[in-house]
Design brief:
Number of helices: 8
Strand content: under 5%
Largest sheet: none
Number of strands: 0
Order of helices and strands: HHHHHHHH
Number of domains: 1
Structural class: mainly alpha
Distance between the termini: 31 Å
Oligomer: single chain
Length: 222
């Protein structure tokens, strides 16, 4: 059985070379755990068969592993603990930080969860929380109104969540949860591997994260 990037990262943290909290390697390890847990949930819900979930988890681990490898390449990954809240992205991505010269122009965390939820809830509000059959989707409304008053409808109330653990801070709404996870992956790529040629020039990793969201959203929830 393939060992996931999440497992490798967590094992690495057990020795004397522990990465500091909120370091990119810790963040991507958490995203790997989220992906694996999501696949397990889809099996429990009957959205995936076990074999499909195993292949899904393997592909996600491979994708995150490639991003981690890019981060660890010289002149590619970027992280500066003193640079703002996240330590990236590089504010001078067009400058080679080894030489100080212009580059050859060959041409998920909490904030990420909030960004994903805002995007999703704004779309839900624009559709008046209607299902495909035109009925009011009370579950989606409760999710969005509970997240922010901006998405409430006058006269209708919704409960707010007090969940604390990392995976449990993701939405109970599985479609929104998938949006949150893939937004985290996209933001990781934009922050920490924007110096890499493919991401800097073509947004390769962040575009793939967007495609993953759309592909599996359609397969699992539409």
């Amino acid at each position: 059985m393939k060992v996931s990037i999440a497992t490798l990262a967590l094992v690495a943290q057990a020795d004397d070379r522990k990465v500091p909290p909120r370091h990119p390697l810790q963040r991507i390890a958490k995203l790997g755990v989220f992906m694996d847990n999501f696949a397990t949930e889809m099996v429990v819900l009957g959205k995936m068969k076990q074999g499909q979930a195993d292949r899904f988890a393997s592909r996600m681990d491979s994708f995150l592993g490639n991003m981690q490898a890019a981060f660890e390449r010289p002149n590619c990954g970027h992280y500066d603990a003193d640079q703002g809240k996240h330590g990236g992205p590089d504010e001078n991505a067009d400058i080679n930080f080894n030489t100080g010269k212009p580059r050859n122009r060959r041409d998920i965390d909490e904030e990420d969860l909030h960004e994903a939820t805002h995007e999703w809830c704004a779309a839900e509000l624009a559709d008046a929380y209607e299902n495909a059959d035109g009925d009011f989707n009370t579950g989606n409304y409760a999710e969005c109104c509970g997240f922010s008053d901006d998405y409430c409808i006058e006269g209708v109330q919704a409960p707010r969540s007090g969940k604390k653990s990392a995976y449990d801070r993701l939405s109970d709404n599985k479609e929104l949860k998938w949006k949150q996870i893939t937004t985290g992956v996209r933001k990781w790529a934009q922050r920490y591997i924007n110096n890499c040629h493919g991401q800097r020039k073509n947004k390769t990793a962040s575009k793939r994260a967007n495609r993953l969201y759309k592909t599996w959203d359609e397969r699992l929830f539409k």
